[in-house]
Specification:
This protein is an alpha/beta fold and about 300 residues long. It is built from 10 helices and 10 strands. Strands 1, 2, 3, 4, 5, 6, 7, 8, 9 and 10 form a 10-stranded mixed sheet that branches. α1 runs antiparallel to α5, α4 packs across α5 and α9 packs parallel to α10. It starts with 13 loop residues before the first helix and ends with a strand.
């Protein structure tokens, strides 16, 4: 994979920016940005299934030091949390943002200002968290910010529930992809995806989308400071009582065209939102569950990345 001298969006010419603006404007209303294809008339103020309407809504933006080391580094990741989510995870740890859509409206100009302010504060990157419903706004704001001196990589931090056709249009905009791969392909895993996240088609959407991400960026590339500048990292959160699903996910990665992506295996689950009323999701991970998944990842040779140990 060719190494770039700077963020990929700096290489876009006026014609490329115009094509991307037009694509995301057309996909925004009626909305077809995520696999749900709810076709909400957002330009008329109607909300999509994700709770997103006509304006970009942001819950917070700040320097974040809790991401994987190549994202947070010493100066922090410039994290922008967008309101709403295309999934309905009953265990979501950020549920006030994702499910209740807490946040404030931002114009495109204001969003561009957020990007530039984070860069000024020393952020290693702009880390877009759940940005899919707001891609029209993000692309417009990025073009403005790039013209005003933005020069740090863009990270696309997503649940993985994406349309590959939409991800393809992000080529030349996103430098690093950080998708989840939450559920496997079996009938049981699909049931889990439907019951726990409201998306029985999760695997069928996520795998081609992640394959497209990896096609664009390849394995993770780091700069001289050890900071991510290009590539794809796949996150997987182990859910208590469902280690079989995690093993399926690992096997799916090992057999996929994106096997070379780095893996972030996460053990930080705790019963948030509606999970306390849903056994076995009402407890934390057990040591033996963690060891089963970790050992399978190592057996499959998926050892590039990070394994978050149990506290």
């Amino acid at each position: 994979m060719e190494r770039l001298s700077g963020p990929s969006y700096l290489a876009l010419d006026a014609a490329a920016w115009k094509r991307k603006r037009e694509f995301f404007a057309a996909s925004f209303s009626p909305c077809r940005l995520c696999p749900r294809g709810c076709r909400a008339e957002r330009s008329a103020g109607k909300q999509g299934t994700c709770h997103a309407g006509a304006e970009a809504r942001i819950a917070s933006h700040n320097l974040h030091f809790g991401e994987e080391p190549p994202f947070s580094g010493e100066r922090g990741s410039g994290t922008v949390f967008f309101s709403g989510c295309t999934l309905k995870c009953l265990f979501c740890q950020n549920y006030p943002i994702s499910q209740f859509a807490h946040g404030e409206p931002h114009s495109v100009e204001q969003l561009a200002g957020v990007f530039l302010a984070l860069q000024k504060r020393g952020a290693h990157n702009i880390n877009l968290v759940s940005p899919t419903p707001y891609l029209r706004h993000v692309v417009d704001a990025l073009e403005i910010a790039a013209g005003r001196g933005l020069r740090i990589p863009f990270v696309y931090n997503t649940s993985g529930y994406e349309r590959a056709e939409v991800v393809a249009q992000l080529q030349g905009i996103i430098d690093v992809y950080l998708p989840d791969l939450k559920y496997g392909p079996s009938a049981e895993a699909r049931r889990l995806a439907r019951e726990l996240s409201g998306a029985g088609d999760y695997f069928d959407s996520a795998v081609p989308a992640i394959a497209e991400m990896f096609r664009q960026t390849g394995p993770l590339q780091l700069d001289g400071e050890g900071i991510a500048v290009r590539g794809t990292v796949i996150r997987h959160l182990i859910i208590p009582g469902h280690t079989g699903n995690s093993v399926e996910v690992l096997h799916a990665i090992a057999a996929s065209p994106f096997r070379g992506a780095w893996l972030s295996l996460m053990s930080q689950y705790f019963p948030a939102h509606l999970a306390p009323d849903r056994p076995p999701c009402d407890r934390r991970l057990l040591p033996e569950e963690w060891r089963r998944v970790r050992d399978e990842a190592l057996r499959l040779g998926l050892d590039e990345g990070w394994f978050q140990e149990l506290d």
